[in-house]
Amino acid sequence: MISFVQPSRDELARLRADPLVFEQELDVRPEVAQSLERELGFRAGRKYWRSSHGHLYALELGDFGRGMPSMAVVYGFWDRFEPRPSEKEIDEDLKDFCLWIAEVCDGLDRADVEATFATIFIIRERAK
Amino acid sequence: MNTWAFTGHVGAFHRSPRPWTTWHAPLVGPVFMKRFKVLSHGGPSTITKRGMTRAEKRGYHHVYDEPDSETVVMTWPRTIPLREGDRGWADMKAIEDRLHEFSKTPTLIVWGTDDPVFDVSYRDRLKRLFPHAEGPINFDRASHFLQDDRGADIVSAILPFLDRAVKGS
Fold first, then answer.
1. Is the pLDDT of residue B45 over 80?
2. Which of A22, A100, B37, B83 could be stapled to A2 by a disulfide with Cβ–Cβ 3.0 to 4.6 Å?
3. Helix, strand or coil for residue B139?
4. In this predicted complex, what is the ipTM?
5. Cβ-based burial of A41 (10 A; exposed 0-12, middle 13-18, buried ≥19)
């Protein structure tokens, strides 16, 4: 479960925003876009959360005037003068995020998302 | 060859929830497609029946090396018309409504029978829509990329048909 936080202006000033996920068609499944609007409480805006690894992320929704959120970007916020966190940690954090999305959005299923994550290792092996 | 051009028939793969609730789902889809490359890197090597060498896999994969090259893999399946109201439904219906215009066009149905996406129920539906069509000529050991699995054999089947069609025109 994702718990949203409100980082201070000072903390944000020390971090750099790294766009990790860009969804240009959020409303291609209207029930998903509408669920997110309901869950987050806005059609356009940004909410932050801190992952189990302690990294700060944000989900930003964009409103194209179609009666629901139409676009989304997920940012990771990293220390301005430090290397990016390990890809493994980012992968794990994004998995938690996807499971949350599947849980709160109509039309998605947490078990399906979990099962697909379980196939990634197999896919990577076969692709070699 | 293994495709569809009609509404009102959804096979087992397209009925299964997982492609639509994961790979092609909003927000979750870009994570699977762009970050983990489940389709661009997983698709060709997973679907092959003949098996691919490392170099052949690399040939299929390298066109998706750029960060945004996955966008098309993510967005076009969202146009697949599964039910009325889906983004591609009206276009597919418009195509379906004009299929009868091919009723006198020489047609050959060629099918890879090991395709889990377009199973033989799609072939049978096409045959009903095109009763004048030759075939189906079935190719076992041919999956979704049948031209890769059995390319030479398929060409051998198509060439005589094309010869007949050209002579008859």
1. no
2. A100
3. strand
4. 0.94
5. exposed
